[in-house]
Amino acid sequence: MASRKDIEQILTDQDQLNKLVFVAMKTIDTNDSGTLDPDELGNIMRQVAIDVGDTPPSDSDIREVFAELDKNNDGYIDFDEFKDLIVRVLNNILSSELA
Ligand SMILES: [Ca+2]
Predict the structure, then answer these.
(1) Separation of 48 CA from ligand 1 center, angstroms?
(2) Sign (positive or negative) of CA dihedral 99, 52, 60, 88
(3) How many CB atoms lie within 10 A of CB 56?
(4) Which pTM does this prediction carry?
(5) pLDDT digit string (tens) for 14-39?
(6) 41 close to 47: Cβ distance less than 8 angstroms
(7) Which residue ranges form the domains of the chain, and what is each CATH number?
(8) DSSP secondary structure string, 25-54?
(9) Are 53 and 42 in contact (CB under 8 A)?
(10) Please, which residues have CB less than 5 A from ligand 1, an ion?
(11) Distance from residue 67's CA to the centre of ligand 1 (Å)
(12) What count of other Cβ atoms lies within 10 Å of the Cβ of residue 36?
């Protein structure tokens, strides 16, 4: 787990942030299309839930998250859309650590 300082550093350094997003995306993008489809997003959401001991998301949960992330509504999550998600997750980690 990255420390608070690491996360702050990543959020202020576009090169590091892009690298992180690229690596994370490549891990999830199992068919190597350069974008994420609903199945790929669903797989990672279920995996993360299992890893943290949470209830796995339902299909409608996944559809909801996907629709929210797919800003241009083309049915895929592209690099910029995925980057928005990562930035949000990192900011959430920072703000929950403050609480
Ligand atoms: Ca899209």
Answers:
(1) 22
(2) positive
(3) 13
(4) 0.84
(5) 999 999 999 999 999 999 999 999 99
(6) no
(7) 4-98 (1.10.238.10)
(8) HHHH-TT--SSB-HHHHHHHHHHHHHHTTP
(9) no
(10) 70, 72, 74, 76
(11) 9
(12) 26
